[in-house]
Amino acid sequence: MSDVKHAHSSCMALLIPLEFSSEVKQILIEENLYENKFRPRRISEKLALPIRENYENINAEISKIMPHLNSEISIEELTLEINKPNLTPAELMFSNISDWLEDFAAKKDKTVLLNYIPQKWELLGDLALLPSNAFTQKEWNEVLSSCQDAEINQLWKIICDSLGVNRLGRQQEISNDIMRTSQVELLLGKQGWVELLDHGVHFGFDATKVMYSSGNVTERHRIGDIDMKDEIVIDAFAGIGYYSLPMLVRSNVKHLHACEINPNSIEALHWAAKKNNVSHKLTIHEGDNKITLANLRNISDRCHLGILPSSESVWKPAMECLKNEGGWLHIHMNVAEEKIPAWAEETISKLKIISQDIGRDWKIEAKHIEKVKWYAPHIRHVVLDVHCHL
Ligand SMILES: C[S@@+](CC[C@H](N)C(=O)[O-])C[C@H]1O[C@@H](n2cnc3c(N)ncnc32)[C@H](O)[C@@H]1O
């Protein structure tokens, strides 16, 4: 984090005992009396809140709501820091959290706490997701456990304001269960439903219930760029429609069969199909695809196999779903970087054996390898586009 240099200037300020500062600040904002060109300053056990020039009625406004405060507040002209107008969200968050710490953790070592402020977050509509370790360090735990709920909420609120969102969550590891359940913890906000628009495609899902991988964005765009006019397509691991929806909306498929086992993802996929006006071209097959794919034999031109670390368990049923004349497979896999060419060759050999097993005498060719993202050090998420044809 780079140091933010601040200029100073004189300004009228209302001095308030620290414990009442957040409520009074809220009153000032609501009454349009708060001067947000300046940053508040702590002076001993009081906080100096910058106020606008029309402050004559300030005492009256505050005593209406907090009459007991009258004798404890004063107005003075002070020199305060000028807020920088062009702070990045990260700088704004740093500066606002620094102010919050003045109020609620004045006796702690601020430098250590500020060093832990997250530098990265994921934006999902109006929900910002902080990394799983955000504000969980021993030092932050000590501060937060000594705060009241309202004070902690105020911290989450200023982070939201800094990042320009209304809700805040903290990432947890995606669970290793078959449904890839999301374990996002909501810090501020009542529910986790988010809506996104990406490349003209609407997505919606509950971030606390299902996973969404922003890192797959390039692959979503690539799949949506492939012309699938008149094709019948199967998405064997549809999720909320990460790939199904781009294929329905942008690739212009004739009909798409989406296999999915997680009811929360299915609900999201139904919602998005309606929102994108493609419900008439979509059939959702709920349940384990080892069963549902068996009902889709010999019907498709393309089968999308988007699961990690490996989709090998469904290569055979997926090939059985292709029409007699063949079609395309998009095989997702995690592969060590140096092993990618060998893995592609080995995959084609295995697919040739399956093809013979199921009585299809296809030519099988690797047409493209897409490196989607780094999954772990040295491990790539790749997609192999395979053409099976007579
Ligand atoms: C990795 S997630 C979402 C996949 C999405 N294509 C992506 O890459 O972002 C995989 C999805 O497959 C579903 N799934 C896993 N195993 C399944 C199975 N045997 N049958 C049907 N769906 C399954 C999970 O519920 C989850 O929604």
Describe this structure in words.
- By secondary structure, the chain is α/β, with parallel strands linked by helices.
- It folds into three domains: 8-81, Alpha-Beta Plaits; 89-170, GMP Synthetase, Chain A, domain 3; 212-389, 3-Layer(aba) Sandwich (Rossmann fold).
- It contains twelve helices and 17 strands.
- The protein has helices at 21-30, 58-65, 89-104, 110-115, 138-145, 149-163, 217-225, 244-249, 263-275, 289-292, 315-321, 340-357; strands spanning 8-17, 41-43, 46-50, 74-81, 122-124, 127-130, 167-170, 185-188, 193-198, 201-206, 232-235, 255-260, 282-286, 302-305, 326-336, 363-376, 379-389.
- Strand 2 (41-43) and strand 3 form a beta hairpin.
- The protein starts with 7 loop residues before the first strand and ends with a strand.
- The structure holds S-adenosylmethionine.
- Residues 178-180, 213, 216, 237, 239, 242-243, 259-262, 265, 288-289, 306-308 line the site of S-adenosylmethionine.
